[in-house]
Amino acid sequence: MAAKSEKDKEKEKKEKEKQKKEREKKKKEKKKAEEEAKGKCDKRGTRNYYQYYDSPDGCNVQKKIMCTTRYGIVAGLIAGTYDVLMYSHVVGLVPILTRYARHMVPIALMGATFAAVANAVQRVRNADDQLNYFAGGFACGPLVALYLRSGHGLIAGGLVLGIIAVLKKEHVDREHAFIQNFPAHMNTIRSWRNDWTLVRDPRDDMLHTCMLKRKDGECP
């Protein structure tokens, strides 16, 4: 009986060790799957800041809200600067800060509201389409009314922002740029004004080295 009990104990010990190894294996597999999912969800690479489309819609919602809030703060800062310098001409620290807050707070809240509503609607509907963006834009209607101090912004402003959001979503799905990224000065008709090169064109040396002659009227 004693020998049998010892065998049973050894057997139980081996089973416990086996179960422990299986649990550790499952934990490693789960951790690996989470890391892979995180890698697929976050596309920013080596960049140390987050942009809205670094992850798919419905993923990293908190980061998306912070991102759109940041965009709103920047837009409000620009609008507030224009207001103070070109429109209201207020004097004094408190009035200036008040004018900045008058623009920054509503616009920042619009950005946060859009991201929160659009991603929430997507998770509820379990569908990634233009309706989510329209809902996010339309939800900003009350904030537009607050910003413009007019009740017309409640519906009209929401519809306008919803339509703009739908157009943005359509451009993203079709991989088109909503706002074209034109080069600052390269490859434009005025590029010669910004050419401050201190060395000669290496293509001339290459043509000479390769014993090639440029034809008359041929561009380099």
Automatic annotation (TrEMBL):
UniProt keywords (A-Z) are: Membrane, Mitochondrion, Mitochondrion inner membrane, Transmembrane, Transmembrane helix
State a GO cellular component annotated for this protein. respiratory chain complex I
GO BP annotations of the record are: mitochondrial electron transport, NADH to ubiquinone
> What does the record say about its membrane topology?
Multi-pass membrane protein
Q: Where does it reside?
A: Mitochondrion inner membrane
Coiled coil feature spans: none
* Sequence ranges of Basic and acidic residues compositional bias: 1-22
TM region(s), chain numbering: 71-94, 100-119, 131-148
Lineage top rank: taxon: Eukaryota
Q: Where is this region: Disordered?
A: 1-38
Query: Which family does the entry's similarity section mention?
Result: Belongs to the complex I NDUFA11 subunit family.
- Protein name per UniProt: NADH dehydrogenase [ubiquinone] 1 alpha subcomplex subunit 11
**What species is this protein from?**
Chrysodeixis includens
